[in-house]
């Protein structure tokens, strides 16, 4: 399967972007959209491409991925770390990682684990806390690690897991589909919309530090002051063993997920109805979701200014917040197609109708 989306998703997922260290993804975003609109950043590092004229419609994804950070170095050269974002520590032992140093080096290592031979029965069923884990990059001492490897306290640590197409080529596996699918979709949609007229000012955005509490979205909203916000996300799939399959709202291959609610945001009902109507008119496969856990940048965007109609479009991804997530590229295409079709129709009258409460 040859698909320009495959190449874009490969570049974005193979890039490293721990929260607060999103430079590689920011550079890709700017390069892909260079010449299409005004490129700018805010004080936290979120990036924007603005083009057109009319009501201000925001297409936003977050650039960062769940990661780790060097907290301490032991005298014998092992790295203690803290989490950047939500990890289930069960997924971390014996996984490969990359320490991104300040001088630009990428130091490969592994999270330490004990062989089962050394584990008493009482420990075998326990989930080891992150505070008890270490990264081994092969250093012999703290001075060796600092002087010869260039690793220092505060350096980010990211999963080491290359993008691949699976046996069914529409299924893709990589780290960081949460949320490089959103970044890729924002890029592709903007490229398509820049080549045609649209009745609004489109602002494509990559936010920083979503995984640490939607921090970038808070300042991004202040900078661009959107009239409508469409958040593009890699959302948790729930179509795997151990999940209630009959009630799955994020199944691979079933289309773009339109999120109505989660604990941090209730989506504008008129915008939800608009998205569903557009999807049906354009024959775009979609699935609706009401979530009892999780959250996205929608939390900050909807509460900005005097309130902004906001919606989340998602690509369901299995095993997110781990080293290996899986998506169906057809769901990604559905998200891109729906984002484009919505922007094409969001003229002043449609935007005004979203907040016509009286």
Short description:
With 358 residues, the chain is an alpha+beta fold. It has helices at 4-14, 23-33, 121-124, 142-149, 177-194, 215-224, 269-281, 298-302, 329-345, 348-354; strands at residues 38-41, 47-52, 56-62, 67-73, 79-84, 96-100, 106-111, 135-136, 156-159, 164-165, 171-174, 201-207, 228-236, 256-262, 265-266, 286-290, 310-317, 325-328.
Task: Explain what you see.
The chain has 358 residues and is of the alpha+beta class. The protein has 2 domains: 4-65 and 175-354, Aminopeptidase, CATH 3.40.630.10; 67-159, Peptidase M42, domain 2 (Elongation Factor Tu (Ef-tu), domain 3), CATH 2.40.30. 29% of the residues lie in helices and 27% in strands. Strands 1, 2, 3, 12, 13, 14, 15, 16 and 17 form a 9-stranded mixed β-sheet that branches. Strands 5-4-9-6-7-8 form a 6-stranded antiparallel β-sheet. The relative contact order is 0.19. The model has no long low-confidence stretch (mean pLDDT 96).
């Amino acid at each position: 399967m040859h698909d320009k989306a495959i190449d874009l998703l490969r570049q974005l997922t193979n890039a490293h972007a721990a929260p607060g260290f999103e430079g590689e993804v920011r550079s890709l975003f700017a390069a892909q959209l260079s010449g299409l609109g005004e490129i700018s950043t805010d004080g936290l590092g979120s990036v924007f491409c603005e083009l057109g004229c009319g009501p201000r419609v925001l297409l936003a994804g977050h650039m960062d991925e769940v990661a780790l950070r060097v907290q301490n170095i032991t005298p014998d050269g092992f790295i203690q770390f803290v989490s950047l974002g939500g990890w289930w520590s069960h997924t971390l032992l014996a996984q490969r990682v990359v320490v991104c140093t300040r001088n630009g080096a990428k130091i490969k290592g592994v999270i330490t684990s004990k062989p089962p031979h050394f584990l008493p029965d009482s420990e075998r069923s326990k989930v080891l806390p992150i505070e008890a884990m270490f990264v081994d990059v092969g250093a012999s001492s703290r001075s060796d690690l600092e002087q010869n490897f260039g690793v220092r306290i505060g350096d980010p640590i990211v999963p080491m897991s290359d993008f691949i197409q699976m046996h069914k080529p529409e299924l893709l596996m990589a780290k960081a589909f949460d949320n490089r699918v959103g970044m890729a979709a924002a890029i592709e949609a903007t490229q398509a919309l820049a080549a045609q007229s649209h009745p609004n000012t489109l602002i494509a955005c990559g936010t920083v530090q979503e995984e640490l509490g939607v921090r970038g979205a808070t300042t991004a909203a202040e900078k661009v002051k959107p009239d409508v916000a469409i958040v593009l996300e890699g959302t948790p799939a729930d179509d795997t063993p151990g999940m209630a399959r009959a009630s799955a709202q994020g199944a691979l291959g079933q289309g773009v997920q339109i999120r109505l609610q989660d604990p941090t945001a209730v989506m504008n009902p008129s915008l939800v109805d608009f998205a569903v109507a557009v999807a049906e008119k354009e024959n775009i496969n979609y699935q609706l979701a009401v979530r009892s856990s999780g959250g996205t940048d929608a939390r900050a965007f909807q509460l900005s200014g005097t309130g902004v109609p906001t919606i989340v479009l998602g690509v369901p991804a299995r095993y997110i917040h781990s080293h290996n997530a899986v998506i169906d590229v057809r769901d990604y295409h559905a998200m891109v197609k729906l984002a484009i079709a919505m922007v094409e129709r969001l003229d002043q009258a449609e935007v005004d109708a979203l907040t016509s409460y009286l």
